[in-house]
Design goal:
heterodimer, A: mainly alpha, 9 helices, elongated, B: alpha/beta, Rossmann fold, 6-stranded mixed β-sheet, 4-stranded antiparallel β-sheet, 25% strand, globular
Chain lengths: 255, 242
């Protein structure tokens, strides 16, 4: 097959998947308002996506904050600007690293599991069984997951911001011997409410995006166990790349 | 009871159903027979709207099911149960929870009433002592019986069975079909069974339809089928009875 045929096929698949993901999202939104309201499943999903991700998100945020402080200090030291270290670390975390890394870690831990679970339900006809029992599969499987993700991903992001800043503070104060008073004062000067809010708004978008992509890929899985594996890989790749691309677009919109 | 008219369906250019016409009689056990890969499962999945036809009609209670919206189909699906080949039990739930699922979804019952109903249904399929087991802990035959209990929970009028005996030993095959026959009498069900086992069909069927090359080649009572002069039907019967 020649290069252009491959390119064309990839482009068509992109268009097909994009349309499918949009429709899947709007169907999930639509079924949100039709009863029954599955509160128990919603809480269970909040636990699965949120509570069970806190450790991996905390570790990622802690070390990202620490390494950011270390690297930024190295750059700032070249022109004696170390006094703004606290502000730079806090801005990096609240605006970018907090929401993006949290979302990517949630994709890796919970998103992949969502694709695998829904995908294996698809190939073992459990989704068809839901339909046969007059239960709408998107309403049953996706509505609780969408809203759980939209709520817990921003909460995890807020937690990641705090832990990351604490990690950066620890490195700056105890390892790089920067005065904690100056560090905190610059942080207060430089970080504004919009910086924190923009990060949280991004994370709401990421929460909806990642769960929709992962759910969609699982829901449309085919080809046995191998197909579920392929769907899971595609879900993680599309979600992660999509998060990074949309992060850039959202940043240009916010600032 | 269910009337299928001129049903056609193609997959990737390959026409599987080429104008199926079939009337499924009420309160009877109808066997749909044919070689593997002739589209028997595809045919019954059309009845519950899991597959949409390219053309044709399926009439049930005065409605053409092929024209119904997903919401309207949901109402019909409460009356037409479907037993998947592998059972399609929810593997995250126990057998008892699987059977309780449709009851919780569709009936306003107390926990006690649901527990009683689950006990009754699991007793009917002789699986009561496996109530707290997960599907992965059950054998193939047990999974099918558990799935049958879950299907019956919605009190359907019609149950479609997708190869309920495939993969089971001869004794279990008879056990499952005896069970289906008993449940059919008890709950006044119309049963449609996909099978390619002629011996079982002659023993249990009230009505038999042969699907071959995308159409219903021959239909009738077991006696009429036995006496059919159609060469394919005769070949099918003889090869099974060797």
């Amino acid at each position: 097959m020649n290069f252009f045929a491959l390119l064309g096929r990839a482009f068509l698949k992109f268009i097909y998947d994009s349309g499918g993901i949009f429709l899947f999202f709007f169907k999930t939104l639509f079924y949100t308002f039709s009863p029954p309201y599955r509160i128990k499943l919603f809480i269970k999903q909040m636990e699965f996506i949120g509570v069970k991700s806190w450790l991996v998100v905390s570790l990622t945020a802690l070390f990202s904050g620490m390494v950011t402080a270390y690297q930024v200090n190295h750059a700032l030291a070249k022109f004696g600007g170390q006094s703004v270290l606290g502000g730079v670390v806090a801005l990096t975390l609240t605006r970018e690293l907090g929401p993006v890394l949290t979302a990517i870690m949630v994709v890796a831990r919970a998103g992949s599991a969502i694709t695998a679970e829904i995908g294996s339900m698809r190939i073992t006809e459990q989704i068809d069984a839901l339909k046969i029992m007059a239960v709408n599969p998107i309403q049953y499987l996706m509505v609780p997951r969408l809203w759980a993700s939209v709520i817990v991903v921003p909460l995890l992001t807020g937690m990641a911001d705090i832990i990351g800043i604490a990690g950066g503070y620890g490195v700056a104060v105890f390892l790089l011997n920067i005065d904690p008073g100056i560090l905190l004062a610059r942080m207060e000067d430089m970080v504004e409410l919009i910086d924190i809010l923009s990060g949280i708004l991004k994370s709401i978008f990421f929460g909806a995006f990642l769960v929709t992509v992962c759910g969609y890929k699982g829901y449309n899985a085919s080809g046995g166990a191998e197909g579920v594996g392929r769907a899971t890989t595609e879900a993680v790749v599309i979600s992660s790349v999509g998060i990074l691309i949309s992060d850039y677009i959202l940043t240009t919109i916010f600032f | 009871m269910i009337e299928i008219k001129g049903l056609r369906k193609s997959f990737n250019g390959l026409e599987v159903l080429k104008g199926v016409n079939l009337t499924i009689p009420a309160d009877k056990i109808t066997f749909i027979m044919g070689q593997s890969g002739t589209g028997k499962s595809v045919l019954i999945k059309h009845i519950v709207g899991l597959i949409k036809p390219d053309s044709g009609e399926i009439w049930f209670e005065g409605k053409d099911l092929t024209k119904l919206s997903e919401r309207e189909l949901q109402k019909v699906r409460r009356k037409i149960g479907f037993l998947f080949q592998e059972g399609a039990l929810f593997d995250s739930m126990t057998v008892g929870e699987n059977v309780a699922f449709p009851l919780i979804e569709h009936f306003k019952l107390s926990k006690k009433e649901i527990a009683e109903k689950v006990r009754e249904l699991l007793s009917a399929v002789e699986l009561l002592e496996f109530k707290d087991k997960y599907p992965s802990e059950l054998s193939g035959g047990m999974k099918k019986r558990a799935a049958l209990a879950r299907t019956l929970a919605l009190q359907p009028q019609v149950v479609l069975f997708d190869e309920p005996t495939t993969g089971l030993d001869p004794i279990l095959q008879i056990t499952i079909l005896d069970l289906i026959k008993g449940l059919k009498e008890r709950y006044h069900l119309t049963c449609v069974i996909i099978s390619h086992d002629v011996t079982l069909a002659f023993k249990f069927a009230d009505y038999i339809a042969f699907l071959h090359q995308g159409i219903i080649l021959k239909e009738g009572t077991p006696e009429e089928i036995k006496e059919s002069s159609d060469p394919f039907v005769q070949k099918f019967i003889k090869s099974a009875l060797i």
